[in-house]
Amino acid sequence: MTSISIRDYRAEDEEQWVRCRVLAFLDTPYFDNVLTSKEHYTNPTIELVAEEDGVIIGLLDLECEETPGTVCSARPGLGAMLWHLAVHPDHRREGIASRLLAAAVDKARQRGIVRLEAWTRDQATVQSWYERRGFKLVDSYLHVYLDGGRELNGALRSEIAGLRPVQAFAHYVGDDRAGMRTRFKRVHECSLYELGIRG
Ligand SMILES: CC(C)(COP(=O)(O)OP(=O)(O)OC[C@H]1O[C@@H](n2cnc3c(N)ncnc32)[C@H](O)[C@@H]1OP(=O)(O)O)[C@@H](O)C(=O)NCCC(=O)NCCS
After folding, report:
1. Binding site membership of 17 for ligand 1 (Cβ less than 6 Å)
2. Which string of DSSP letters, residue by residue, matches 123-145?
């Protein structure tokens, strides 16, 4: 019988943290957002992992504001940004992400954080995961990938002689979202969710 523990991240977890994150995102719209080392932050953090028999199977990183509006959007009170939340695909739907979130919320409240923010791409299962845990959708914009001459032509031009762009990634904050979806093959809606955690 094995048991899963939630504990603070330690420096020696880094390799397993990276592996777990890569595997977790492989079948999601973030499949090519691969990190090869653990992200570090300028503000104080809550960095947790889920461990089973010495193996990291879940992770969560929260960066906590010390001044409102410096990490999260400018709203009243201190916020914390959920930069990473991932569970190994063999351990989905075992309640691991819920346990990581609950532990992080407890710690964040003790630091005076009143709300969490999380950005996620258009994946119904993940959006409903957030919504069922009380997160509210507050904003969104588009992530647009431009791939090859046909998509780049008329959209992006190099200012450097001899340098020809072949791929690009862009944020779209305009009003013609349907037009973007028609013109480009890979377009994601990137949504901001917020959870109030005032105790
Ligand atoms: C999104 C993600 C973090 C959820 O992790 P998870 O550990 O599977 O989530 P949980 O187990 O806490 O909850 C999942 C669901 O399983 C249910 N569940 C929990 N234990 C269960 C069990 N033993 N049997 C069946 N279902 C169970 C929960 O009730 C929940 O259902 P609900 O959302 O309908 O209420 C995970 O799927 C993942 O890593 N996805 C890829 C990375 C990603 O998209 N990260 C977040 C956005 S950037």
Report:
1. no
2. -HHHHHHHHHTT-EEEEEEEEEE
pLDDT tens column, 131-146: 999 999 999 999 999 9
75-97 residue pLDDT tens? 889 999 999 999 999 999 999 99
The domains of the chain, with CATH numbers, are 4-135 (3.40.630.30)
H or E element at residue 58: strand 55-64
Distance between CA atoms of 114 and 81, rounded to whole angstroms? Answer: 11
Residue with tokens 């013609």: 176
In Å, the largest CA–CA distance within the chain is 64
Q: Is 127 in the pocket of ligand 1 (CB under 6 A)?
A: no
Q: What phi and psi, each to the nearest 5 degrees, are found at residue 196?
A: -75, 130
Q: How far is the CA of 106 from the centre of ligand 1 (A)?
A: 19
